[in-house]
TrEMBL record:
Annotated InterPro entries: DUF2569, DUF3857, Papain-like_cys_pep_sf, Transglutaminase-like
Residue intervals of the DUF3857 domain: 69-227
Domain of life: Bacteria
Protein name as catalogued: DUF3857 domain-containing protein
Positions with biased composition (Basic and acidic residues): 899-909
Positions of the Transglutaminase-like domain: 291-396
Keyword Kinase tagged: no
Keywords noted in UniProt: Membrane, Signal, Transmembrane, Transmembrane helix
Pfam families: DUF2569 (PF10754), DUF3857 (PF12969), Transglut_core (PF01841)
Gene3D superfamilies assigned to the protein according to its UniProt record, in alphabetical order: 2.60.40.3140, 3.10.620.30
Signal peptide: 1-23
């Protein structure tokens, strides 16, 4: 601790001394450079409704002279609102004094057409900028800062300066990325690169940016853009870090990625360890403890660099990209990604383990290969290891990683450039090596009291994250945060004991258990004395960004993520539920989601699963994502009624609002009670006495018993009667008030049309059920009207199911599409049509039925029995084997005009 204090004090003194010495050097105030290209276009005035900060840029000018190593910048800001005055009360410039100088050329206010020159009297203060301090990076950057006075509405602020000098670490090669537009309009953008003859600077435009224009200067060339555009680009939240809809250009003197690789090898060669150093002694001891086993050695070396060398970088000057020597990093026990990677690679190579340095980009995991090669394509350094031909990436900046060294998590950085490669970009495999399992059990104990048990298990990289979180946070603070999380749902909640944290670092598994006591559980329903509890799928809902339907930008996801979340309710000592299970599941290109609701006699379980295949949802899949998660209240809100004793009843909420499943819609029940007797009366009094009029049986009986395919038809009738009865009385719940009140919660669905649909379904299903039962009775009694009755019932069922399916699909299209799609929705319609086509055709054409079902209402015994088997009975007719000659003779005799057979009376022949 004392050593760290001394180091920190020394570092502060160095910074202070540096700041003091630099403050003694006055900032230069000079005229603008003579090599500037004149502007040829006039700025336009943008639409002020597109401006948010009360000011806009009339001009943004940036000109870079490669030979002079100078970047010239000039802008004109127009204040059109009071808020603009507040936002533009100062001007500032950030630069690196290690290799750059600042020259100020112009600072003035244009007011009412007159110039007010502020530069001669302006006193700029130098402040330590440290733009990367939040990342524990000290880069020594400075800010020249000046506070403007007496600003007024409609003033124009003109500011111009030059920064001279480039970082020598880049070996005098130039590269740049420049955005030609922002998220607010600009009057005019002028960008110019002055490239001397003999230097080749390649350019590339992105997102519709115009191609570069050229203008020869004799010994140099202007490569420039002059743009006036008043169109705005909307910024959308949750966009991936790599995504930008803005027009931009890139230029670079690095021709290939191999050039960048060679540059990295030159500035960051992996050195030999000084033989007599303490680092060499440490490495030898590490190798001895590993028994000379490469993977044991790799694990020990990796653990040391990740956990014992803290992350902090002093990246002043060329050390922005050059690593410090390993002995220094080992001694001071801190370093940035370059330092830690260099130290780990050096330790490994000292024992002949092949290791290389890898350039990576922590935010641009897509599209890197489309950019121009340059060192600025990367912002991170890691290590690649080759042991026995097995290659593996390791990030030395990640701490507290557990498990087998071969399976350690490595982030999905996209494309990387490794010194073990051939100078080409390589892909980083996207492996989901960890997951989270959460189980919340709410046990109701009566009197509106309950206990909540929570068990969360983290695996892989998720265990790494939780291990770091618990090691870096006070246990009491963690307990408080967890308690506050559940207090949002259960206000009267208190912890029972302390959070239990179990860490199995060898298997990289972290288990956290919590226990709470809840009193006065439940919320009162509006306008009612009923109370209900809410089970919220917040753990899953929070991981899924909410978007608008018209979103354009791809959607960033918290990749990698694999979570299973289970919520359970247990009625202690009571069995009040039936059995029910409901599932929804979809697997898309970027994610997989599932929800299961399972009700058992004494408990209710809601289980969610969520996994991400990709770090983002592409534009073409945005509509599907919106549809999948548009109805979040229905997906993630689950409510259940409590009875007078504080136990859950079987009243399950519908679409976010509780409704008791025991409440009956008396209108539909009375309608059913009235409709059934009416149908029975009609059948008994009217139709049952009628005679067949379009499918007529034969005049004589050919079969006394039901046989052949008629037996199969009878079984099919029984099955359909039982199935339809179950759907009608149980699954569909036509008599449940819950079903009828759902119309009030369905967005975009007319409650009147919804109730008309339900009424028509009740009437239609009653008619079908009655028709099937009556057909079954007719078949058993072998009535003459069976064939036409069953044919009409099957036809009605096919027509009704088709109309009902089409109507319900278009009424609930937005809901059905996200669950199962139209094809699955129409499966009942397809079944009804097939049922009619198969069995309707059979009864219409079957001679077996026409020769069996002949009994009339009066059971007329005068029907004559046929003397022979009906020749057209297709169910049992078999060919009679005869010789060819006999066959020919018989056929001739049969077909003679005098020997025609009456099909209805074969005995007359």
């Amino acid at each position: 601790m004392k050593r760290f204090s001394h180091l920190l004090l020394a570092f502060v003194l160095v910074l202070a001394a540096f700041s003091w010495s630099f403050s003694q050097t006055p900032i230069q105030k000079t005229a603008s450079p003579t090599w500037l290209r004149p502007i040829t276009k006039k700025a336009i005035k943008p639409n002020l409704d597109d401006i948010s900060d009360g000011y806009y840029y009339e001009l943004i000018e940036n000109q870079i002279n490669l030979a002079a190593q100078t970047k010239y910048y000039r802008d004109i800001k127009v204040l059109f609102d009071q808020s603009g005055i507040e936002n533009l009360g100062q001007v500032q410039v950030t630069f690196d004094p290690h290799f750059q100088k600042l020259q100020l050329h112009e600072l003035k206010i244009i007011r009412n057409g007159k110039n007010i020159d502020l530069l001669p009297q302006a006193k700029f203060n130098l402040l330590a900028s440290e733009t990367e301090l939040s990342r524990s990076i000290y880069n020594g950057s400075q800010m020249a800062h000046y506070v403007l006075e007496d600003l007024r509405k409609d003033d124009k602020i003109v500011f111009a300066y030059s920064i001279i000098g480039t970082n020598p670490v880049f070996e005098h090669k130039f590269f740049d990325t420049y955005y030609l537009q922002g998220y607010e309009p600009t009057g005019l953008v002028h960008l110019n690169y002055i490239v001397p003859n003999g230097r080749k600077l390649q350019f590339k435009s992105f997102n519709g940016a115009p191609e570069v224009q050229q203008q020869s200067l004799g010994n140099a060339t202007n490569f420039f853009w002059e743009l006036t555009e008043n169109k705005t680009v909307q910024f959308e939240n949750y966009s991936p870090a790599w995504y930008s809809p803005l027009k931009y250009i890139q230029c670079s003197e690095f021709n290939t990625w191999q050039d960048v690789d060679q540059w990295n090898r030159r500035i960051n060669p992996i050195p030999q360890i000084v033989p007599s150093s303490t680092l060499q002694t440490f490495v030898n001891q590490l190798w001895k403890e590993s028994n000379g086993q490469p993977y044991n050695y790799l694990k020990k070396a990796c653990d040391f660099v990740q956990n014992e060398i803290r992350y902090m970088g002093i990246e002043m000057g060329e050390y922005s990209h050059r690593a410090n020597v390993p002995e220094k990093v080992f001694s001071q026990r801190y370093g940035d990604c370059k330092d830690k990677s260099m130290l780990l690679a050096t330790i490994l190579k000292n024992k002949n383990i092949d290791a290389g340095l890898v350039l990576a980009n922590t935010y641009k995991d897509r599209g890197l290969q489309e950019e121009l090669p340059s060192p600025y394509a990367f912002n991170h350094m890691v290590v690649e290891v080759n042991i026995g031909g097995r290659y593996q990436y390791i990030d030395p900046t990640i701490t507290n990683q557990g498990g087998d060294i071969k399976n350690r998590y490595f982030p999905a950085y996209g494309k990387v450039l490794s010194t073990l490669g051939n100078g080409k970009l390589a892909d980083v495999p996207q492996h989901i090596v960890g997951n989270i399992k959460v189980k919340e059990t709410l046990t109701l104990e009566g009197k509106f009291e309950a206990t909540l048990d929570v068990k969360t298990v983290y695996f892989g990289n998720e265990a790494d994250n939780m291990r770091t979180y618990f090691q870096g946070s006070a246990k009491n603070d963690i307990q408080k945060q967890y308690l506050e999380y559940y207090a949002k749902t259960y206000p009267k909640i208190n912890k029972i004991g302390h959070i239990q944290f179990k860490d199995d670092i060898e298997n990289n598994r972290v288990e956290i258990t919590e226990k709470y006591k809840i009193k006065n559980i439940g919320k009162a329903e509006n306008g009612s004395s009923k109370k209900y509890i809410s089970l919220l799928g917040t753990n899953i809902n929070d991981k899924l960004p909410e978007i608008m339907e018209d979103r354009i930008a791809p959607l960033g996801l918290p990749f990698p993520m694999d979570i299973e979340y289970e919520i359970g309710v247990v009625n202690k000592g009571k069995n009040t539920f039936g059995s029910h299970k409901d599932n929804s599941y979809f697997d898309r290109n970027a994610y997989v989601f599932g929800k299961t609701l399972e009700i058992k006699p004494d408990s209710i379980k809601i289980a969610y699963t969520l996994g991400f295949h990709e770090p983002y949802v592409e534009q073409k899949d945005l509509q599907q994502y919106y549809t999948d998660f548009a109805d979040r209240e229905n997906i993630f809100f689950n409510g259940f009624y409590l009875d007078a004793d504080g136990y859950v009843t079987d009243g399950i909420t519908n679409l976010g609002k509780p409704t008791s499943a025991k409440e009956i819609n008396w209108f539909t029940l009375i309608l059913f009670i009235v409709l059934v007797p009416v149908i029975i009366w009609y059948i008994v009094k009217k139709y049952n006495k009628s005679k067949p009029f379009f499918i007529k049986p034969y005049d004589e009986i050919y079969h006394d018993q039901i046989g052949g395919w008629m037996i199969v038809l009878l079984i099919v009738l029984f099955i359909n009667i039982l199935t339809l009865s179950g759907i009608f009385f149980f699954q569909q719940s036509f008599f449940n008030l819950n079903t009828w009140q759902a119309a009030d919660q369905l967005e975009g669905v007319s409650p009147i049309l919804y109730k008309i649909l339900l009424l028509s379904e009740i009437i239609g299903n009653v008619l079908i059920l009655a028709g099937l039962i009556y057909s079954c009775i007719l078949l058993i009694k072998k009535r003459d009207i069976f064939a036409q009755t069953f044919f009409m019932v099957a036809l009605f069922m096919a027509i009704f199911c088709t109309i009902d399916g089409i109507a319900s699909y278009f009424m609930f299209k937005s809901y059905l599409d996200k669950i199962d799609g139209p094809l699955v929705h129409y499966k009942d319609t397809i079944k009804a049509i097939f049922f009619f086509c198969i069995w309707g055709s059979y009864v219409y054409n079957s001679d077996r039925i026409k020769g069996t079902c002949l009994r009339t209402y009066q059971n007329d015994d005068s029907i004559q029995r046929a003397a022979t088997t009906h020749p057209f009975d297709q169910d049992f007719l078999k060919p009679y084997p005869i010789s060819k000659q006999n066959s020919d003779d018989t056929a001739a005799e049969f077909n003679s005009p005098d020997n025609k057979i009456d099909p209805a009376h074969p005995e007359d022949h």
